[in-house]
Each structure stands twice: as C-alpha cells, then as structure tokens.
Design a protein that fits this description.
By secondary structure, the protein is mainly alpha-helical. Helix content is about 70%, strand content about 0%. The protein folds into 4 domains: about 15-55, no CATH class; about 60-150, no CATH class; about 160-205 and about 405-475 and about 485-525, no CATH class; about 220-385, no CATH class. It has 20 helices and 4 strands. The strands form 2 sheets. It has a two-stranded antiparallel sheet. The longest helix is centred in the C-terminal third of the chain and has 34 residues, at about 435-465.
Length: about 525
C-alpha cells in the first residue's frame, strides 16, 4: 500500500537507448522540475553513480569477487584454459547481454565487434562463439519487442523492405512442412536464419540519428582495417606456428589455403574467401565515399583504407572478390552519374584493365606474377578449373531443382546434412553458390522469392537515393548500394551471404537504406564533416 508524502519523494527512471531519461513517475510536487529535462538527466546520472559507489562500498560485493576468483582458480586447475575463457565470456557476456537488451545501440555495436572475433574459435574450439552470438541477438530482440509493446508502436515492421524480410522468414518457416526436409535439421537452421533477419529490425530501430549511423560505419571501417593490416602481416611476415598447425589439421582447409606454393592470407577470419570478400566490398565502400562532402583528412584516411584493403584482398586470392570491384564501382558510377564519381571509377577501371589485359609480370614489390595471374583468371573463367567444376556441379543438380519446386528442405546440403543425414545423396553436394544453395534447399519457388528479396532492396535504395536531397546522406546511400550490388554478384560464384560478419553488415546496410531516407526528411542540409 502506497504512502502519500507532502514533500518530493522518489524518481523512477527508465532509460532510453541513448541513456537519457525517458519517463518519470510523478509525485505531488514533481511540477517543480517539470519542463527541465537537463535537470532530470543530471539527477538520473547522479543517482546511477551513487548506486554504483554504494555497491562497491558494501562488503558483500568483495566477498562475491573473492568467491569468483577462487572459483576461477579452481576451474583452471581442473579444466584448463578453456574453463577460463568460458568463465570470462560469462562474466563479461551476461552484463553485455542485459545492457544490450535495454540499449540497442550498444548491442548493435557489440554484436558487430563480436562477429569479427568468431575466427578466434579455431584457438578456443570448445567455446561455442556462434551460439553466444545467437544469445546476444535473442536478448536484443527481446528488448526491441518489450520497447515496441510498451509504446504500442509497430510502425518499424512496415514498408517494402520490412515486408520482403517477413516474406522470406515466413517462407523459411513453412519449409518445416516440406516432406523431404529433416525436422531436426530445420530446427537448427531456422534459428540462425530467423534471428539474423531480426537483426535488420533491431538496427532499423536503433539507427535513429545520423551520429549513430556514422559511428557504426566508422566501427565497420576500423575493424576491417585492423583485419586487413593483420592479413598483410601474415603475407609479409608469414603465418604464426599456431596458424600453420590449425591449417594443417584439416585436409580440406589446407588445400583451400595453401595454393600456388604459398599460403593465402585469412587474417583472424575462418578462411580466405570470407576475408577476401570482406576486403572487396569494404574497399568499394571507401572508394565510393571519396566524392562525398568530407574533410581532406578523412578522404586521405579513406584512400589509405581502400589501398590497404584491396591489397589484402589480392593476397587473399579470392577470385570472386576481384570481380566484385568492377561490378560495385560500375553500379555506383551509373547510379550517381557525377563527374568526380565517373573520374574516380574511370581511373580505377583503367588501372585494372591495364593489369588484366597486359603482359605485366609484376607491379613493384607488392604484386608478383602469381598474384597477377590469379587476378587475370577471375576474368577468364573458361580457363579456371574451379569454374569448370562449378559448371559441372550445377549441370548435375539442375534436374533435381526443376523437379522439386520447394526443394529438399533447410540444411539438406552442407555441414548440417553431413551431421544429421549423412546417407542423403545431397549430403556431399557442394553448391559453391548462394543461389544454387537456395534453389536446392528451398526450390525454384524459393529462388524466385530470394531474387525478389534482393530486387526490393536495390529498388528501394535507388528510389530513396533519387528522392533525397542531403549530399552527405546521398553519398552514404550510394556507397552502400554499391556494396549491396557487389554482394549480389558475389553470391553467384560463392556463398557470400551466409557467414559473419558479412551477413550482419548486409542487414545493417538494409536498415540504413531505410533510415537514411527518414533522416533526410527531418534534418537540414549537412555541412562538410
């Protein structure tokens, strides 16, 4: 039973995503501070600081910390370093997960950073980092749903982009009833598909201002730059002994990474393909930002990022990545049709054509004959052995796709099929293409829906670009669309959109395509930044 006071009582603070005070429960004399949000925000932070200070002044917290330290030492002595890693993940991960639930901006940034660390799983193989990412996504989704329910505002789930996301999720859900599908495999696969696609709605809700959009873009660039620099370290210094041992432990992995008498670099990712594709589309993004209204120092930074990333891409030896560069830049140039854009794309195109179609055997100390020959083979697929293998695989599976409009079910090919249905004739089939995988698992009907999905993303993006007026926002959007188109192209020769961090970045881009248009409608023309 409540007690009425005749003096100011208590404040109940509920914090929004940017940690500002969102709602205050009123007391009789609350009107004294009503209309003064700065006072409320300052008071809220003071209250938070005082509670933290009082927490660490308690004896109980030190008893808990001592108990945790003893438990950690005991666990390390029995189970070794793996226990220590799991212990730290829990101690750090639980607070991060709960804070991500109430602060989606923090959650988006944390998940993006975490996705770049999944490659370290090769050194801590007993720790399920992929499951940890799904758990973090689940907490963020719960936070989004609670926020929407509390505000009774579900507008975020509307619009062409949201509708096509829902359509793709529902179609994958309905595959549960596919008579050819394994229900057990479906449960494993749908978890990743549905949760990852929900990330689009999470980012759409969190990216509500230009400052956060800049933040997430710059974090993406910095993380990729770090990956590129470490990849160059691998190229010029060599792989560490631990990395060589990891490569040698698996025959398939060794044949993938050790080619042409040299190791293909993969940085701290799981394989050179993921690394090379990431370097390619992020390099495209940096180049596409150069004509924008940015300060000189930032353009120098973007230029350095692009050079480093493209050089790392070459050493990764992923032919698909080489083809992404002209595809993405050509789309960007045709979309913008600006003099500076055409000049930058033209210069890069001429340099690339000179390397591809000439007899140049090396380019300084950076590009050797083997590097150049591998680049040239990407634009002459008829002489590429791997391309001929893909053609034979697609010819083999084509009759099956035509005869099964709804496919063989989620997870009917690849690692899940090998694990749960090893006797299936599709278990050992390697699709080597995102579109072929969809056609086999979801049928030609699913392939049509999949193509419509990409078409809607590009159409909405192009329409928004020509309806926007702010030059900075248009620069961001055009660069993002160049990335999307390059990934759509890359998804044919490779499964480019199934692994982190690329799949997370793709859903971030989808959300930004929508958000940039809304921000353009609400802010004045931006100045040079």
């Amino acid at each position: 039973m409540g007690i009425n006071h005749n003096y100011p009582s208590y404040f109940s603070y509920f914090f929004s995503n940017d940690c500002s005070v969102l709602m205050v429960k009123r007391d009789p004399i609350l009107s004294l501070v009503e209309g003064n949000p700065a006072f409320l925000e300052e008071t809220g932070f003071k209250l938070l600081r005082s509670r933290i200070k009082s927490l660490f002044s308690s004896t109980v917290i030190y008893i808990i910390l001592i108990a945790l330290s003893i438990g950690l030492a005991f666990g390390l002595s029995i189970w070794g370093a793996t226990f220590g890693i799991i212990f730290l993940v829990v101690i750090l991960g639980v607070p991060i997960a709960f804070y991500s639930m109430i602060n989606l901006k923090f959650g988006v940034v944390s998940l993006l950073i975490f996705s770049y660390c999944l490659g370290f799983n090769r050194f801590i193989k007993d720790v399920p980092l992929g499951v940890a990412m799904d758990i973090l996504l689940g907490f963020m989704l719960l936070g989004l749903l609670v926020d929407k329910w509390r505000k009774h505002n579900y507008a975020i789930a509307s619009g062409p982009m949201s509708y096509i996301v829902w359509l793709w999720i529902i179609y994958n859900m309905l595959e549960f009833f596919n008579p050819m599908a394994s229900r057990q495999v479906w449960i494993y696969v749908i978890r990743g598909i549905a949760l990852l696609m929900m990330f689009y709605f999470i980012v759409l809700h969190a990216a509500d201002n230009l400052k956060f959009i800049r933040t997430i873009i710059n974090i993406w660039l910095v993380l990729t730059l770090i990956g590129a620099l470490y990849g160059l370290f691998q190229e010029f210094h060599g792989l560490t002994q631990a990395e060589k041992d990891w490569v040698a432990r698996d025959e398939f992995r060794f044949n993938l990474i050790f080619n042409w008498g040299r190791y293909r670099i993969f940085s701290f990712f799981t394989d050179p393909t993921i690394f090379g594709i990431l370097m390619a589309y992020t390099g495209i993004f940096c180049i596409a930002l150069l004509p924008g209204p940015f300060r000189g120092w930032y353009k120098i930074y973007l230029t350095c990022c692009a050079i480093i990333m493209l050089l790392a891409m070459v050493y990764a030896g992923t032919r698909t990545a080489y083809a992404m560069i002209p595809a993405g830049l050509l789309f960007f140039a045709l979309l913008t049709l600006q003099r500076r854009t055409l000049m930058i794309s033209g210069v890069i195109g001429l340099l690339g054509a000179g390397i591809i179609f000439s007899d140049v055997r090396s380019v300084g100390p950076f590009l050797s004959t083997s590097n150049l020959e591998r680049i040239r083979s990407a634009f002459n697929p008829s002489e590429d052995p791997s391309f001929r293998v893909r053609e034979k695989s697609q010819a083999f599976i084509k009759p099956f796709i035509q005869a099964h409009p709804f496919g063989a079910g989620l997870g009917s090919i690849g690692i899940w099929s090998v694990r749960f249905t090893p006797d299936s004739p599709l278990a050992k089939f390697a699709p080597d293409s995102g579109y072929v995988r969809v056609a086999v698992e979801l049928g030609w009907v699913g392939l049509i829906v999949y193509c419509i999905f990409f078409s809607v993303v590009l159409i909405v993006g192009i329409r928004n670009y020509y309806r926007m007026t702010d030059p900075l926002l248009k620069t961001y959007l055009a660069a993002l669309l160049g990335v999307v188109f390059s990934l759509v192209v890359a998804n044919y020769p490779q499964e480019a959109l199934i692994q982190a961090p690329t799949i997370l970045i793709f859903y971030i881009i989808m959300a930004l395509i929508v958000r940039l248009k809304k921000i353009d409608e609400s802010i004045p023309k931006s100045k040079t930044v």
